[in-house]
């Protein structure tokens, strides 16, 4: 089965998760990650007060009080727990969450992200995005590499509003996975139909890589 | 026993210019019947502390549409289109806080803590005029605690003393808001005798709760409907 761009990203991220991880999935591509776990047991945290989130419920067993952070009805798995919003963000900021998987609008060469304020719109919504950026042990970005207008989301400097000073650990796109080092942006692996040279040209930034991945 | 009251009896507690904490995330855990009572009063200029301003013509959305809200403090208002329009016309003041900062500020307000330093939102537009302090090599921003004149919360069950238990993710901001206001009104689905709730399961001890009212909303499939 041929995977679409979003599924390629989700599948690659699923490889990064370890058995037993407590993981928060942002809206959009991150939610697809749970389809590619291949039996690996992880515990999904939803910042409105739940660990042990399960798949969407059958239509006749929907409980509209039981929702995820995107306000969509969900189910719970065995061993789930509920807690209030202050506890939930305490565990997020306190470094108790193994991984947060987030979408972005932009990411700069240091790994700082912009993922909350849509350009040219009033800044009136932030939700839990900044708490997750600041607090999760590991932050993985799940996003297509290019915006609708073809521009790279991986940029020299953010032009959109930053989500916080903390640098993310990994950026998984449909062409390549990037990590952020003191020497610069490093391509960890390459799996799309772009060569490393084409990738560097389209992104427009110097990229570090090991010789093996360029084959 | 004076704490179980009718919906009409709560109206005298609510006054113009008050700061009111309102529980709920979307509609889940929102005191819908109590908020409907606000519409039967002539109070105005309210300062509301809530994650968002209701949803789909329910809860705070109705209160807002009646022009009773002067200022909203919360984390996510972009889903309330009318609120965005009112803000851009200068008719509604909005103070935006990260969701975890909002929750912690209310927790502090209820726990006698004046404020706290958090690493969330350091280096962003939301904290550019706030005090930054470095502690052990990490930068934090100072945020004040939040208290309200009144808190309007929603729980699943209350006993007749005011002990509360919640249902699934409808818990959200309700337990912390119960601690952080001078007067707390809890709307509940069910009121039971004292002794019927397992003490091990009580989330909000009765000490925080001033009034209990029976909700007039029930869940039917994918919506809440009002029963009279």
Automatic annotation (TrEMBL), chain A:
Keywords on record: Transferase
Can you name the source organism? Viridibacillus arvi
Q: Does the keyword Transferase apply?
A: yes
Chain segments annotated as transmembrane: none
Q: Which PANTHER family match?
A: KETOACID-COENZYME A TRANSFERASE, SUCCINYL-COA:3-KETOACID COENZYME A TRANSFERASE SUBUNIT B-RELATED
Q: What is this protein called?
A: Acetate CoA-transferase
GO MF annotations, alphabetized: CoA-transferase activity
TrEMBL record, chain B:
Can the keyword Transferase be found in this entry's annotation?
yes
Ordered alphabetically, the record's keywords are:
Transferase
Question: What are this entry's molecular-function GO terms?
Answer: CoA-transferase activity
| Alphabetical list of SUPFAM superfamilies matching this protein | NagB/RpiA/CoA transferase-like
Q: Which NCBIfam families match?
A: pcaI_scoA_fam (TIGR02429)
**Which domain of life does the UniProt lineage start with?**
Bacteria
User: What is this protein's name?
Assistant: Succinyl-CoA:3-ketoacid-CoA transferase
């Amino acid at each position: 089965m041929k995977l679409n761009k979003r599924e390629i990203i989700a599948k690659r991220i699923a490889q990064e998760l370890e058995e037993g991880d407590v993981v928060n999935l942002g809206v959009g591509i991150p939610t697809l990650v749970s389809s590619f776990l291949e039996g690996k047991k992880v515990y999904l945290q939803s910042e409105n007060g739940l660990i042990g989130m399960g798949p969407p419920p059958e239509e006749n067993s929907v409980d509209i009080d039981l929702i995820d952070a995107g306000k969509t009805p969900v189910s719970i798995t065995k061993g789930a727990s509920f807690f209030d919003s202050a506890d939930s963000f305490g565990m997020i900021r306190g470094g108790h969450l193994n991984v947060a998987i987030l979408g972005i609008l932009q990411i700069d060469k240091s790994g700082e992200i912009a993922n909350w304020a849509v350009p040219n719109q009033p800044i009136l919504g932030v939700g839990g995005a900044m708490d997750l950026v600041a607090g999760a042990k590991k932050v993985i970005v799940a996003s297509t590499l290019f915006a609708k207008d073809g521009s790279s989301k991986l940029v020299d400097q953010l032009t959109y509003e930053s989500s916080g000073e903390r640098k993310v650990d990994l950026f998984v796109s449909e062409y390549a996975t990037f990590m952020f080092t003191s020497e610069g942006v490093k391509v960890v692996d390459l799996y799309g139909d772009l060569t490393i040279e084409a990738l560097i040209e389209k992104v427009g930034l110097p990229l570090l890589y090991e010789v093996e991945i360029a084959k | 026993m004076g704490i179980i009251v009718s919906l009409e009896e709560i109206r005298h507690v609510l006054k113009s210019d008050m700061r009111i904490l309102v529980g709920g995330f979307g509609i889940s855990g929102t005191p819908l019947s109590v908020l409907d009572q606000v519409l039967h009063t002539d109070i105005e200029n309210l300062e509301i502390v809530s994650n968002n301003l209701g949803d789909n013509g329910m809860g705070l959305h109705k209160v807002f549409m009646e022009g009773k809200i002067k200022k909203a403090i919360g984390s996510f208002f972009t889903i309330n289109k009318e609120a965005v329009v009112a803000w851009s016309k200068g008719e509604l003041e909005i103070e935006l806080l990260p969701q975890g900062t909002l929750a912690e500020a209310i927790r502090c307000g209820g726990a006698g803590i004046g404020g706290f330093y958090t690493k969330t939102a350091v280096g962003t537009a939301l904290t550019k005029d706030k005090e930054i302090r470095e502690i052990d090599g990490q930068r934090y921003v100072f945020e004040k605690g939040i208290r309200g004149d009144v808190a309007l919360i929603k729980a699943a069950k209350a006993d007749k003393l005011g002990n509360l238990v919640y249902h699934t993710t409808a818990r959200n901001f309700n337990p912390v808001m119960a601690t952080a206001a001078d007067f707390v009104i809890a709307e509940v689905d069910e009121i039971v005798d004292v002794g019927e709730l397992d003490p091990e399961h009580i989330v909000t001890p009765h000490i925080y709760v001033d009034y209990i009212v029976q909700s007039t909303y029930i869940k039917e499939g994918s919506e809440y409907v009002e029963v009279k």
